[in-house]
Design a protein that fits this description.
4 domains, five-stranded mixed beta sheet, alpha/beta, about 450 residues, six-stranded parallel beta sheet, single chain, Ubiquitin-like (UB roll)
């Protein structure tokens, strides 16, 4: 066995190594305890392996914490950089970089822009100089508009602004103001059947100043010009010559109103009914039937009387009672008016334009009230009709029977000529220019508008 062990390797071995190997072969007990390579690792207690895992995780924890802290610090640094980044503006015609969010006042102070500029003067209320250089230290123009000195401390720059800093402006001494309103006036233009407020009146103002330092008193005149009111009277001109007209009935409702509604429905036509408040109170169901049928309702005032003879509260009472009667019977608000006899003066408008969307007359009178028969009514209308016509018919107790009898032939005649029969609101809608400034369903009064006065030279017509 010794010779066999010595012959295995073909390399020189030390004497000590040979003897050690020989002893191992001579000692069976020792040989039995000798383990193969790696056996100690495989037979070690399992708990020693498990205990090593927490030690490994614990050793990585500080690195994870450091990474989180670094990310947080980078995030904070990014925010600080973004909040303080530089942006480009144009200052007095030249490009420059400023800190984003910097106020105009900070910019002026930091760059000493006020140095070398000429301050404005302090003026008395009569424009005389109280103190040279007592005005604003500088003037600021931002994006083409003057920036009030009181706003420079709060106006922040975000980039892209055009800023101009120049000599200061004069300012007035502290003063008391006595102001007087300038009432707008009313004018009526045009001659069409549709009257409406084209331009609402807005008050102007004049001022008298009394200086607190100088004690002087100065009339500063008109400091705000009034906007005068204009009521325009126009005809409806349907776009592209569209052939459409509006049938309108006065003084309803009557005993024949429902018959007229049935005829309109059978013929596929629509119309507008102007009702008196008294008539509605006597026959509320008829008013409701008009609304439910999809036809339009306007007011003929409360009582059928000439409104141009009324003014002020008396006029407003007639109008409000008429509108209220419509709302009570139909549940719908109304602002559309046809004054009896289409008599509505400039003074009427001045007294009540906040109640009336439009006062609509007519440009074709059917003449039915002359009681010449149904054929006469049809011939009169057909002989005068044109696109945009507003046709007058009567629905009172004296004339409504004849009106109802003439209605089928009248509608047939209009349709034969290619006309559509619309409500007034739908007729106005065919004229885009007119519709842009007129809504028959409501009054469109701006918040700062006021009722105007009628100039003496215009009279009360």
């Amino acid at each position: 066995m010794l010779n066999l062990a010595i012959s295995r390797p073909h390399r020189k071995r030390s004497t000590r190594a040979v003897l050690k190997q020989a002893r191992a072969f001579r000692s069976p007990a020792a040989g039995s305890r000798r383990r193969r390579h790696g056996e100690a690792y495989l037979h070690r207690p399992k708990r020693s392996f498990r205990k090593s895992r927490p030690a490994g995780n614990g050793s990585r924890a500080p690195y994870a914490l450091i990474a989180v802290c670094c990310a947080f610090l980078f995030f904070v640094a990014s925010i600080i950089w973004y909040a303080n980044r530089g942006v480009e503006i144009t200052l007095n015609g030249e490009s420059t970089t400023v800190r984003v969010g910097e106020t105009v006042e900070q910019l002026i102070d930091d760059q000493e822009l006020a140095d070398g500029l000429k301050a404005g003067n302090l003026l008395a209320v009569d424009d005389s100089v109280l103190k040279k250089g007592g005005g604003d230290a500088y003037s600021v123009e931002l994006n083409g508009s003057t920036l009030a000195i009181g706003d420079v401390a709060s106006t922040k720059l975000s980039g892209g602004e055009k800023l101009k800093v120049s000599d200061g402006a004069d300012i007035y001494e502290a003063h008391d103001v006595t102001a007087s309103d300038i009432e707008p006036t009313l004018s009526m233009t045009g001659d069409g059947p549709v009257q409406y407020v084209k331009t609402w009146g807005v008050k102007g103002r004049s001022e008298i100043w009394t200086g607190k330092e100088s004690g002087r008193r100065a009339d500063r005149g008109v400091v705000k010009q009034p906007v005068n009111c204009e009521v325009e009277c126009v005809s409806v001109k349907p776009d592209n010559g569209r052939k459409c007209v509006a049938l309108t009935f006065n003084e309803g409702p009557s005993a024949h109103t429902r018959q007229m509604l049935d005829i309109l429905e059978q013929q596929g036509a629509k119309a507008t009914f102007f009702l008196t408040g008294e008539g509605i109170e006597a026959n509320p169901d008829a008013a409701k039937a008009i609304a439910d049928s999809g036809n339009e309702i306007g007011s003929n005032s409360y009582a059928f009387e000439r409104l141009s003879k009324l003014k002020g509260d008396a006029l407003r009472s007639q109008l409000s009672r008429g509108f209220d009667a419509i709302e009570s019977a139909t549940g719908e608000k109304c602002a559309l008016l046809r004054a009896p006899y289409a008599s509505f003066s400039a003074q009427n408008w001045a007294d009540s334009m906040d109640m009336v969307s439009a006062m609509v007359g007519w440009n074709i009178d059917s003449g039915d009230w002359l009681l010449k028969g149904a054929k006469s009514v049809t011939d009169t209308v057909i002989g005068s009709v044109q696109p945009g016509s507003i046709i007058f018919l009567t629905d009172n107790s004296s004339v409504s029977a004849q009106t109802a009898a003439s209605l089928p032939a009248l509608i047939d005649g209009l349709k034969a000529q290619g006309y559509e029969l619309l409500t007034l609101s739908d007729l106005v809608a065919t004229d885009k220019e007119l519709a842009a400034g007129l809504d028959l369903s409501q009054v469109s009064k701006p918040e700062d508008a006021v009722l105007p006065r009628v100039p003496a030279e215009q009279g009360r017509k």
